[in-house]
Design brief:
Layout: H1 8-13, E1 19-20, H2 25-36, E2 43-53, E3 56-65, H3 79-95, E4 104-108, E5 123-128, E6 131-139, H4 158-174, H5 178-186, E7 189-192, E8 197-200, H6 216-229, H7 231-237, H8 239-249
Parallel strand pairs: 3-4, 4-6
Antiparallel strand pairs: 1-2, 2-3, 5-6, 7-8
This protein binds zinc ion.
Length: 251
Amino acid sequence: MDKVELSPRDKLLQLHDLTPAENRELVEKLENALQSAGQEFSLDYLQAGEINIGNKMIRFSFMLSGERENKNWQEYLSEDLAESIVRSLERIKKSSNDELFVDEIVVTDVNFANPRSGKPVNGVTLTNMENTSQNSIVLFVNALSDTNYRGEIPGVSHLEGTVTHEYGHCLDNASGADLRKMWVERLPWQYDEESDTFSYNGEQQDFVTTYAGVSPTEDLAESYAIYLLDKERLARVSQKRKAFFEALLGS
Ligand SMILES: [Zn+2]
């Protein structure tokens, strides 16, 4: 039987109104993470359904603060932005030679600021510690802004950049952190035991964005995003990084 490939917009039509999620585990994980960063939130965990990417069903959920009367998910996320999320996932699927290591996309109305830098955070990936190939990508309000991606790639929205960056963390988690170990081995990242931090002994120009210089894991996720979104650009910035993903993804 021929399988008809649905457009991102058609896939969104399969979603339903928001219904409370049965399992509170993930929302508690997020609340705890936010609390440990000094920000207290009490969130409603609501499901809008599932979206198929290839043969994988990915849950589409919302974590909303405060009283919510409207159960229509489009009240909290425009269809254009939702389509942008689906497009990102389809691009990721196309480049992955194996399964997808993301189970859920969560959209929040939380404005979360990094406690150290004070800057708004775009997203976070929550992994299931018993099975690290199960990951949930949580998108904060800042990810939904109407600007260009910080990588400044023509035609790529900030949201697409964010989803793709977060998927870089999913890949790393699914490898049981083997990926970041290989990354640190191949690139001039140096671990300092005393301070439990990494420093970079190469050139700042090796980084595809300023944010990539924060840590090896952010460098990995950021480079993965640029590899998927603008391979030529990653090649210009760092041949080593491009070669790493070429070997990994075989494309
Ligand atoms: Zn990141």
